[in-house]
Write a structure and sequence with these properties.
Blueprint: H1 9-16, E1 40-41, H2 52-55, E2 56-57, E3 67-74, H3 78-93, E4 104-108, E5 122-123, H4 126-131, E6 144-145, E7 148-154, E8 159-162, E9 174-175, H5 178-191, E10 195-198, E11 202-208, E12 211-217, E13 220-222, E14 228-233, E15 237-245, H6 252-260, E16 271-280, E17 287-293, E18 302-308, E19 313-321, H7 331-338, H8 342-348, E20 352-362, E21 374-375, E22 378-380, H9 396-416, H10 421-424, H11 426-432, H12 435-442, H13 454-466, E23 486-487, H14 506-511, E24 525-526, H15 533-542, E25 548-551, E26 554-557, H16 567-571, E27 574-575
Parallel strand pairs: 2-11, 3-4, 3-15, 4-10, 7-17, 15-22
Antiparallel strand pairs: 1-23, 5-9, 6-9, 7-8, 11-12, 12-15, 13-14, 16-19, 16-20, 17-18, 18-19, 21-22, 24-27, 25-26
Helix pairs in contact: 3-5, 3-9, 9-11
Length: 589
């Protein structure tokens, strides 16, 4: 099958020195086998390798033209900002350190803080209280406390209420917008003296021996063919004694560091993809709603949510595990069809869709945590370290708490003048002794049990919940999502036409993400060689933003549509950094 793209994929592949390759099976588990006689695809067979030669540079930072920092934090989300705030506070209070001589820099690829941050979100406030002990809950950037909550099992037309699992009970928690939380944390960081630089995507790690020495940011102003345009600006080297990787889900530097350092978990990491909308509605919602079942089939892990966001707004979304077996499944279309269900229609009808977004979610849990989250001059925090608990649908407070623990370790290392791997090992110890690992261990197999389908998985998860993880606690092996074989079957996406009022086509939804990526930006999605037609169809269904299309026997890549959800990096073409400010501009998500 011939391959074409809207922005010269072949040129990008050549410039990145990326050759086609087949991912290696990690040997943890075999992918499920579809029935005999059914044509299948395995995304791993066409998954380009991680371009380590681009993302890990054995070069010293340019000290003259670059930007020096004591601590460089890559990612301006909850983990990175919490780390920066706590570290700045510790430095300010210590009589032995001069706060003016300790430079803390946060690098964020979005044009403004929060523009790439997307979550449900129901938030456990414990980490906010820890970081700001002098404030009250009402001072935090939440929309309000969780009022009532209900869980339903959906069929195509009916909603059957089921008991709320203990892991999903949210008494004492709050609903909120992650965008707003991040912007608020950014203000607090700047007040504490932290340098927050937006529009600076870190492209490569700069290393010397086994030590991370800093990062190099992506260049800006390149033309589609990779040549330097009139607004060209080269990347900047940021040198640092310690680099904190707080990239969130599927960060390319985190993947590269783990691969370069040959650090693995007992299981590979697995992921889900979530699609979300923010609506202004006629009637206020007074209940946090979660569902399972339709529009997902019994072999696809996931569910939906509907959250009150104040008197006039609600947030709703659908999440599906990226090991789904139906090659024709399209989560974006499934989400639109979901809104036609009476449970959602009665809330949304007569309202207006304000914003749309999509993001992958880390789901592997305890057994997918890297064996270590520290190295010479480097720490992993938040979702970069895998700190998400799927059974409780929580990750924000784990991210912030890991950032706080990292800051305390960094503070002691700076005081001692030792930022080696041994000096930073206390971070792993602190995490292991914290509620982060305690919670993840207790729920260690609940997500993994659903590899056997909804019924068997639900039964096993119930046993684990009732025994607080004591029963069925042996590791359930998993394979990478890309190794799951897919068969083309009937899908909720087939024959579906959105109405433009309650339901929307992909490109209309992408417009609501605020994506203003320029059309002539270089291709940033690296596609494998010889993509067959059935895989092109799979990519088109997988991507919620309409980046991939099949035209005849060719795959067309509309790279400017990309909203950085990272699902493509899990299952298909590799995501690589583009110039700062590209991608979505979420405001209330």
């Amino acid at each position: 099958m011939a391959e074409t793209t809207s922005s010269a994929t072949s040129a990008a592949n050549e410039s990145n020195n990326i050759s086609n390759g087949t991912a290696e099976d990690n040997g943890n588990a075999a992918a499920p086998t579809p029935p005999q006689g059914v044509t299948t695809i395995k995304p791993a067979d066409f998954h380009p390798p991680l371009p380590l030669e681009r993302f890990v540079l054995h070069e010293a930072p340019d000290e003259e033209e670059g930007m020096p920092a004591d601590v460089a934090i890559v990612g301006g989300g909850p983990a990175g900002l919490a780390c920066a705030i706590e570290l700045a506070r510790l430095v300010r209070r210590d009589p032995e350190l001069d706060e003016d001589e300790v430079e803390i820099a946060v690098l964020e690829k979005a044009g403004e803080l929060g523009e790439h941050s997307l979550s449900g979100a129901v938030v456990n406030p414990v980490a906010f209280r820890e970081l700001f002990p002098d404030l009250k809950d009402e001072d935090f950037p939440f929309r309000g406390p969780v009022p009532h909550e209900k869980v339903y099992f959906l069929t195509g037309k009916r909603a059957w209420r089921v008991p709320t699992p203990p892991t999903m009970r949210n008494r004492g928690n709050y609903v909120g917008s992650l965008c707003e939380m991040v912007r608020w944390l950014g203000e607090k960081a700047e007040e504490a003296g932290v340098t927050v630089v937006t529009g600076f995507p870190a492209e490569s790690l700069l290393v010397e021996g086994e030590r991370v020495r800093g990062v190099r940011t992506a260049p800006a102003g390149l033309e589609r063919d990779g040549s330097q345009g009139n607004t060209y600006e080269p990347g900047t080297d940021i040198s640092a004694k310690i680099t904190v990787l707080a990239e969130g889900v599927r960060g390319h530097l985190t993947q590269s560091w783990l691969d370069w350092q040959t650090v693995r978990g007992e299981n590979p990491q697995i992921y889900a993809l979530g699609v979300k909308e923010l609506w202004e509605v006629k009637q206020p919602l007074d209940t946090v709603v979660h569902t399972l079942g339709w529009p997902l089939d019994s072999h696809t892990f996931g569910g939906s949510f509907l959250y009150p966001m104040g008197e006039k707004q609600v947030a709703l979304g659908l999440v599906a595990g990226l090991d789904y077996p139906n090659a024709r499944f399209d989560i974006a279309v499934a989400f639109q069809r979901m809104k036609e269900h009476p449970l959602f229609r009665k809330v949304l009808e007569g309202g207006e869709m304000l914003e749309w977004g999509a993001k992958s979610i880390t789901e592997g849990g305890y057994f997918s945590l890297p064996a270590r989250r520290h190295g010479d001059g480097c720490l992993l925090v938040g979702e970069s370290a895998g700190f998400v608990d799927v059974p409780s649908l929580k990750g924000i407070h784990y991210a912030m708490h890991s950032g706080i623990l990292a800051a305390r370790t960094i503070f002691e290392a700076l005081k001692k003048g030792d930022t080696s791997k041994d000096a930073l090992a206390g971070y792993d110890t602190a995490c292991d002794e914290s509620y982060i690992i305690r919670d993840l261990y207790r729920t260690r197999n609940m997500r993994l049990a659903f590899k056997h389908g909804l019924i068997r998985g639900g039964a096993a998860a119930s046993v684990m919940m009732l025994s607080s993880g004591a029963l069925l606690g042996d590791r359930i092996p998993m394979h990478d999502d890309a190794w799951a074989e897919r068969a083309a079957k009937k899908s909720v996406a087939q024959g579906y036409t959105p109405d433009g009022t309650l339901t929307f086509p992909k490109l209309d939804a992408v417009f609501k993400s605020g994506n203003t990526t320029r059309d002539d930006i270089p291709q940033h999605l690296v596609v494998g060689d010889s993509v067959p037609p059935e895989l092109a169809d799979f990519y088109a269904g997988m991507c919620p933003a309409g980046v991939y299309e099949r035209e005849g026997d060719k795959l067309v890549v509309n790279a400017p549509n990309c909203v950085d959800c990272k699902a493509t990096d899990v299952l298909g073409p590799r995501w690589t950094p583009r110039e700062g400010g590209s991608g979505p501009k979420y405001r209330g998500m």
